[in-house]
Amino acid sequence: MSRAPYASDPAVSRGRRHPEAAAPTRDAFQRDRDRIVHSTAFRRLVYKTQVFLNHEGDLFRTRLTHSLEVAQLARSIARPLGLNEDLVEAIALAHDLGHTPFGHAGQDALNDCMKDHGGFEHNLQSLRVVDALERRYPAFDGLNLSFETREGILKHCSRANAQKLESQEPGGVGRRFLERTQASLEAQLTNLADEIAYNAHDIDDGVRSGLLRLEALSEVPLFEDFRQQTLAEHPQLDTRRLLYETIRRMLSAQVYDVIDTTRAALQAHGIADAQGVRLAPPLVGFSEGMREKSSVLKRFLFAQLYRHPQVMQTTGRAQEAVRDLFAAYAARELALPAHYEACEDRHRAVADYIAGMTDRFAMREHERLTGGRWLA
Predict the structure, then answer these.
(1) For the whole model, what pTM was predicted?
(2) 180, 73 contact by CB (below 8 A)
(3) Can you list the positions of beta strands (E) in 268-331?
(4) Phi first, then psi: what are they for 74, rounded to 5°?
(5) Alpha helix (H) ranges present in 50-184?
(6) Cα(first)–Cα(last) distance of the chain, in Å?
(7) Is 305 left (phi over 0), alpha (psi -120 to 50) or beta?
(8) Which CATH class is domain 10-206+239-370?
(9) Where is this region: Disordered (predicted)?
(10) What is the rounded CA–CA span in Å between residue 315 and residue 309?
(11) Which phi and psi angles does 16 have, rounded to 5°?
């Protein structure tokens, strides 16, 4: 399918922070995707929590499998809209590179530890990973990704952080948060694909774990309507196949809704090119009805899964571990690797190091610190 005129065009990319010659066989966004896949931070995602800690089961989603699912969904939506599939894939694969071990529990604990030292936010940390923390190339730190990929990675940003980014990189990825303009359609799309993916796979993982009962989801119309539809067509279906088929239909409905709603918004605002996208309101989204159904699902998952006593118990343990590790590294009770020890800002170096840990490495470090077993 040909690319739409409002899609991001690698031939007119705003470029990289450190100029490089073009690759002979890949455009800028394809090169970004490849650099992300080969990065150390990307490999670490396989052992980073989504909802369930890494040791709790082999079949639960991790940050890596989540990122792959986001990339698949984003490409599926980008293709019929004529958007740049390579760019949405690059953004999707990189969007969680800054996540801490132990999921949002780890982030919240690290942000609390850093409250007097600039705070911590995983979205901003993902940008920091690709801009500074990866150590692969002789001429620069980071991955030196194109502006458009970096912009998509930074999907949220406070005004204070945007001002700091703007002072470091005038006219860079922080500018749009100060001017209240929009990111590319590819960035907007990947942000929504992230939401679609985790809502669906958290249902799957929640039921698999035993923390969610299939019957309890009857109060969620976005799920229950497709469960009933599936049962009407396949009344003898076993529970596992029923769950998979219901989620599959739910995902398809959301994908088609986003495509139709976005097409209508592009037409309504008369979008003719990529610059028009930036000056318009957000264009990628659900219809009003689908947005409400998605909100009901999110509220259900928050109350029934993310705040489940068993999840909260491991959450508390994880936050304690992060706080203990932060205090020990900050006080130099534990040594950081040499290149972190060389940093002038000790607290930021500690945050960078902890954020880069996998679940199991953080567990081992905490056991080494305390002399106790994680599961004791």
Answers:
(1) 0.94
(2) no
(3) none
(4) -65, -40
(5) 63-81, 85-94, 103-113, 122-128, 147-153, 159-168, 175-179
(6) 56
(7) alpha
(8) mainly alpha
(9) 1-29
(10) 9
(11) -110, 155
User: Residue 15: which residues within 8 A CB-CB, separation 6 or more?
Assistant: 28, 146, 147
Q: How far is CA 369 from CA 44, 333, 337, 347, in A?
A: 22, 9, 16, 18
Q: What is the pLDDT of residues 195-216, one digit of tens each?
A: 999 999 899 988 988 889 888 9
* DSSP tag of 372: S
More confident residue, 376 or 34: 34
CA distance 22 to 31: 9
Q: For residue 209, how many other CB atoms are within 10 A of its CB? A: 18
**Dihedral class, residue 343 (left if φ above 0, else alpha if ψ from -120 to 50, else beta):** beta
Helix and strand tally (H, E) in the chain?
A: 18, 0
Both structure tokens of 317: 């343990």
Range with the poorest average pLDDT among 68-72, 311-315, 362-366:
311-315
Under 8 Å between Cβ of 93 and 43: no
Question: Under 8 Å CB-to-CB from 248, ≥6 apart: which residues?
Answer: none
Picking from 124, 277, 122, 256, the residue whose alpha carbon sits closest to that of residue 186 is 277
Q: Are 220 and 292 in contact (CB under 8 A)?
A: no
Burial class, 281, CB count within 10 angstroms (exposed 0-12 / middle 13-18 / buried 19+): exposed
Average pLDDT over residues 309-338: 90
Summarize pLDDT for 96-146 with one digit per residue, the tens.
Answer: 999 999 988 899 999 999 999 999 999 999 999 999 999 999 999 999 999
| 269 three-class SS | coil
What was the pLDDT predicted at 376?
46
Single out the residue of 117, 118, 74 nearest to residue 95, CA to CA: 74
149 touches 29 (CB < 8 A): yes
